[in-house]
Every structure is written in C-alpha cells, then in structure tokens.
C-alpha cells in the first residue's frame, strides 16, 4: 500500500463536492475574457440571454468551464450567466413527498406482509445535490425502499403493528445519515399501511372474538356474584327485622296494584295455615 496516498475517508470527502480551490488556467481566463467581450459587443441584445431569474424557492448552481463557480448556490433573484462558458442547474428547495409503493416483506417470524410508506424530504445544499449524485430524487427513492425492507425484515409482525412510530423514527435516522452527503434533509417518515394475508386476518379476528367472549363471561360472572351477595345481604336484613319484611310486602302489593291486573294473589304466612289446621275437626 502506498504510504503517500491519502486515507479513503479523505479521498471520499474531496471527491464529494467538486468545489476546487484551484483557479483557471491561462486558456480558461482567455475564454472567460472572450465571453465577457462577446457580451459587451452584443449588448443590449446579449443581456437578455445572460440574465436568468431564480425564484424564491430555487437556487442555481453555476458551472464555469466545468467548475462550480462559488461554494454557495446563487439566488434568488437575477443572476448573470456568461454564454459558451457557463452552465447553470436549477435546484428546487421545497419539500418533496416520496411515496414508497407496497413492499413485500418477510418478517422475522416468517410472515409475508406488504408495507408502504411516505418520506418527506428537502434539499438543503444545492451544490451537494448536484455535484455528489446523478439524480438525487431517484437515489433517495431507491434508498428509502431498501431501508424500509431492511428495517422491517428484522421485526416481527406484532412489533410492526404495535411500533410503527418507533420504526419510522429509525428509518428516518438511517436515511438522514445516508443522504447527508447528497444535501438532503429527511424531515419525516411515515408507515401508511401494513397488509397481512387474509387467512392470518381471519385467525387474528377469531382470536380477538374469543378474547372478547371470555372477558364478557368474566364480567357476567362477576355481576352475578355481586347480585347474589346483595340478595344475601338483603335476606339477612329482612330476617332480622320483621317490620322491614312487612314493608317490603306492602311495597310489592303497591307495585302489583299499579298494573292493570284482574287477579291479585295474596300470600299468607305459614303460621296462619298451621293455626287453621289445628282447629279443623278430625274426620270420624
């Protein structure tokens, strides 16, 4: 290995943004001077071709003889572009919505599911977005697809269904680290829908229904137990207080009389029946 060669990290950083500190050669300065002279000779016709309008949400990256003119993108407003030597690229800084189509994913517990999502990002460095990647939007879209599959492939189905927000934050952090060199700022990641097989949906629905029925039976049993305890307490009170029993009897008669009944049955105490049986003459 050559000891004079710079480290790989330094090489990658130098090759990312092509803003070189070196100036133009003599031939380059001659061509630039010739372009300025051409603008002056053909003025004012040439000025309409050289002046470009950059909108508020745009920035312009100007290449002069193949080099980025300044370390900062130009705009918004009017910029001057020399003919034959300058080429400029418009970059939109507005937030972009990237829809991730449904991805077929095999979860960690061997369940095949389809998950789709959406990524919100914007370009914060126009020079990096132009100089460091061929198509920044296509690269971000493909990276979002790959990251979504890789992250969800390490989760179980229950973790995916219950932890969408945490998974989205993890994907956002991974995308931020990967797209920082491209001048991209990932603002938000959302998982829209998780589609599971129909057979699994039916089994989950049956399990949920069985759980609900079990809970309903438990609640009904608790209600019956409470009611029986209340009846037991009431019977104890009535047995200890004959007056209370008589009042309850009168209240029952009042409730029965309120209805339009043709027959009312009056229960008689058993002790009265015993007294009548004692006074009955015996058969000869």
UniProtKB/TrEMBL annotation:
Molecular function GO terms recorded: ion channel inhibitor activity
Annotated SMART domains: PHB
Source taxon at top rank: Eukaryota
Residue intervals passing through the bilayer: 29-51
Principal location: membrane
Keyword match Transmembrane: yes
Pfam families in UniProt: Band_7 (PF01145)
Residues annotated as domain Band: 49-208
Keywords, comma-separated and alphabetical: Membrane, Transmembrane, Transmembrane helix
GO biological process annotation, one example: signal transduction
InterPro entries: Band-7_stomatin-like (IPR043202), Band_7 (IPR001107), Band_7/SPFH_dom_sf (IPR036013), Stomatin_HflK_fam (IPR001972)
Subcellular location: Membrane
GO cellular component terms given for this protein: cilium; membrane raft; neuron projection; plasma membrane
Any coiled-coil regions, as ranges: none
This protein's record includes keyword Membrane: yes
Annotated family: Belongs to the band 7/mec-2 family.
Protein name per its UniProtKB record: Stomatin like 3
Species this chain originates from: Ornithorhynchus anatinus (Duckbill platypus)
Gene name linked to the record: STOML3
